[in-house]
């Protein structure tokens, strides 16, 4: 038995060691190949969302062949003058500009076309309009649009994923209530309290655990999707923490269980856990679209390597990284499938709390291990034994899951009791 545990330890140690040590990219430059007709031109690739860094880059690099990936935060029509000055600086440093399809842009920038400037390229031999240009890299480049444009309004993909999470969650819970013969009138208040607990708890959790300075610097942004720090601005909520959402959901569900549906809270938690696992996967996919919660730098030859040109500078240099959002989303999706199978095909749903305990253990274990691949989220002011804030906060939830599974034996009910009409 001791040999078995030793082997498990070695496997885990090898896994963590392989992923924990970050690849280094001097100067924040990755490498690729610019194919111009039949010629292969090795290029250094650079990208940043920081205007100051982008503006300074032409004077800081001595490489002959360089490709700079521009994005919307660099060249916004609302800030045309500053964006145009940057383009002029690159032009004076012998850079050429291309759109997203690598078509040469020879016309001056205007407010109408400045967002078409996608690449700035400097090469030993100038590229002509008739040249066929493509970029090849050993890693993938994830540079999506912000969302779906509906006239003057843009439906952001992150918001869409959040809507899908709650929409599908509602449909799934409706199905669960029908299976358990629960009056549908209890679904609306559950949805309302879940929504309140998720949004408010996630926001407060982020501010308390990662950005407490907001209470002093921009108090209203803690509770409202606005910023008043540099003038009034609608920003949306830019920080949500799953630990905070979980704590808030525990309390709102207790209220719902005792005051509204009048069932054992573990009965409700068992079913909410199924929905939350699926919703969590959609939220992490939304993070992927937003190029946030990115992973640590990884070798460009890794099959997981992805460059996020739109990533915030708070994560460090814009270089190939692990898609930690997708790892987490895959874990949550697998958890949803497991919980749904156990709910539908076994009697575990009658052992109130068992499914919820399992949900807690696996969900937070996924979070714990994926944290080894993530860049820190804000200020990591809770660090114990080399573990970051997210990992430290996950441990109590995993322990709670084990305890809940053990005590769930005391809360068994029969199928008849479960499906007893109101």
Provide structural commentary:
- The radius of gyration is 25 Å and the shape is elongated.
- The strands form four sheets. It has a seven-stranded mixed sheet with strand order 5-4-6-3-2-1-7, with no helix packed on it. Strands 8-13 form a two-stranded parallel sheet.
- It is of the alpha+beta class and 422 residues long.
- It has two domains: 26-137, no CATH class; 148-306 and 313-418, no CATH class.
- It is 48% helix and 12% strand.
- The chain has helices spanning 2-20, 51-60, 80-92, 157-179, 187-210, 214-217, 220-223, 242-261, 265-289, 324-345, 354-370, 389-407, 415-418, and strands spanning 30-36, 39-47, 66-69, 96-98, 104-105, 119-122, 133-136, 140-141, 147-150, 153-156, 226-227, 233-234, 306-307.
- Mean pLDDT is 86; it is low at 4-11.
- A hairpin with a 5-residue loop joins β4 and β5.
Keywords:
cell membrane; alpha+beta; 2 domains; two-stranded parallel sheet; 13 strands; 422 residues; seven-stranded mixed β-sheet; 13 helices; Phosphatidylglycerol--prolipoprotein diacylglyceryl transferase; transmembrane helix; membrane; transmembrane; 12% strand; 48% helix; single chain
